[in-house]
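Anyone opening a protein record will find just a pair of labelled lines. The record below illustrates this layout.
***
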Amino acid sequence: MAAGARVFGLAGYSGAGKTTLLEKLIPHFVERGLKVSVIKQTHHDFDIDRPGKDSWRQRQAGATEVLVSSDRRWALMHELRGKPPPSLEVHLARLAPCDLVLVEGYKREAIPKLEVHRPSLGKPLLYRDDSHILALAGDERVPVPLPWFHLDDVTAIAEFILQHGRIP
């Protein structure tokens, strides 16, 4: 795992607002001087490459990994080619040292999580089947025996995450 990092997840169904909440939380943590990384799990097909680019052509030719590097960033693309995806633990081990890893998705992992829930989506609450969900956030209060936050109360949500992770 990323050396010294605390891991905290956001779980919920598509459209609940996990990504939007993360976009608001990250600057809050960065302003406090924390180095933050994010791991996002998706069930949709995605590609960070573009057809015709050199790296795309190299992957199409059969390369298992292609690393693209510039003076501003680098990205490693790894083709699974039918193999199962790596576990969250394997991905955590790949990260550079940081203070906090926010995980979007991996809703069945045994990590502390905040459930993001919008009743209007008509989806069931996840906390009932997951003892790792410590609190809920949403746009409408729902009667739950856990701490509840409004999605717009980013400061309170961030403080909950920091307290839970014992992060200064």
Summary: The chain has four helices and eight strands.
